C-alpha cells in the first residue's frame, strides 16, 4: 500500500519548534517512522497471500468436513432393518395387497430386512402355510394373460420372468384351445374375412406371433372362414 495512504505519525517541524530537538533526534524519529511505515506496508501486502500459500490444504479440510457431515446424515436417515415379528407383520401386509412369487417376495422383503437368511426362512414358512403360493400366482397370471389376448409363449415368458415354473399350469395350458384364442384375436383386429394378399397375411402372422401364439394355431386361425363354426 503506498505511503501516502498512511497518516503522518509525527509532525517533525512542530516537534523541533516545541521541544527544540536537535537534528540527531529528528533523524532518529524519521528512521522510526520509516521502519513503521515499511512494516505496515509489508503486512498489508502479505495478508491477502496467506490463503494463497495453502489453498489445497484448506480445500482438503473443507472436503473432509463435508464428507463427514454427509456420512452422519446418511447414518441418521438409514432405516433399521426389520427382524422377527416386525418382519413377519410386514410380509403379511405385502401379501394382502397382491400375490407375489416366492422369488419376488424374498427380494421385496430383503430391501427392508436386517438379515436375508431370515427372509428366506420366513418366506419358506409362508409358502408351507399357503400364505404365499407360486401355484396360485401361476393360475392367476394365466387367466389374466388370456383375457389380454396373450398366447402360451407370452404366458410362459411372464412366468419365467417371475421365476415361476410353467409346469405348475401345464395342464391348463394343454386344455386351452389356443386356435380359438388366436382366431378371436384375429377377428377383433382384422375382421372375419380370410386374407389372400401375401402382405396382409404376413401382417396377421406377425401380429399373432408377437402375442405369443404358436405357428400351428396361427395358420389355422387366419385360414378359418366364418362359416366354419
UniProtKB/TrEMBL annotation:
Domain RecX third three-helical: 176-222
Lineage, uppermost ranks: Bacteria, Pseudomonadati, Pseudomonadota, Gammaproteobacteria, Moraxellales
Entry superkingdom: Bacteria
Record function comment: Modulates RecA activity.
Keyword annotations from UniProtKB, A to Z: Cytoplasm
One Pfam match: RecX_HTH2
Family designation: Belongs to the RecX family.
Chief location of this protein within or outside the cell: cytoplasm
Transmembrane segments: none
Start and end residues of each RecX second three-helical domain: 133-171
Biological process according to GO: regulation of DNA repair
Annotated InterPro entries: RecX_HTH_2nd, RecX_HTH_3rd, Regulatory_RecX, WH-like_DNA-bd_sf
GO cellular component: cytoplasm
Protein name: Regulatory protein RecX
Subcellular location as annotated: Cytoplasm
Amino acid at each position: 500500500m503506498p505511503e501516502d495512504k498512511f497518516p503522518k505519525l509525527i509532525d517533525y517541524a512542530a516537534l523541533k519548534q516545541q521541544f527544540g530537538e536537535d537534528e540527531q533526534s529528528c533523524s532518529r524519529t524519521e528512521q522510526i517512522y520509516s521502519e513503521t511505515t515499511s512494516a505496515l506496508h509489508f503486512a498489508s501486502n502479505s495478508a491477502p497471500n496467506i490463503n494463497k500459500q495453502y489453498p489445497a490444504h484448506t480445500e482438503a479440510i473443507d472436503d473432509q468436513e463435508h464428507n463427514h457431515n454427509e456420512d452422519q446424515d446418511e447414518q441418521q436417515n438409514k432405516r433399521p432393518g426389520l427382524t422377527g415379528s416386525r418382519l413377519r407383520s410386514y410380509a403379511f401386509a405385502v401379501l394382502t395387497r397382491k400375490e407375489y412369487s416366492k422369488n419376488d417376495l424374498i427380494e421385496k422383503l430383503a430391501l427392508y430386512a436386517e438379515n436375508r437368511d431370515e427372509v428366506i426362512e420366513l418366506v419358506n414358512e409362508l409358502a408351507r402355510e399357503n400364505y404365499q403360493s407360486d401355484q396360485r400366482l401361476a393360475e392367476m397370471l394365466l387367466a389374466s394373460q388370456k383375457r389380454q389376448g396373450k398366447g402360451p409363449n407370452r404366458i410362459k415368458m411372464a412366468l419365467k420372468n417371475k421365476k415361476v415354473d410353467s409346469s405348475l399350469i401345464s395342464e391348463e395350458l394343454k386344455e386351452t384351445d389356443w386356435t380359438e384364442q388366436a382366431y378371436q384375436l384375429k377377428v377383433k383386429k382384422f375382421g372375419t374375412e380370410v386374407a389372400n394378399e401375401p402382405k396382409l397375411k404376413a401382417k396377421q402372422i406377425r401380429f399373432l406371433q408377437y402375442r405369443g401364439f404358436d405357428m400351428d394355431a396361427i395358420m389355422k386361425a387366419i385360414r378359418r372362414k366364418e362359416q366354419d363354426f
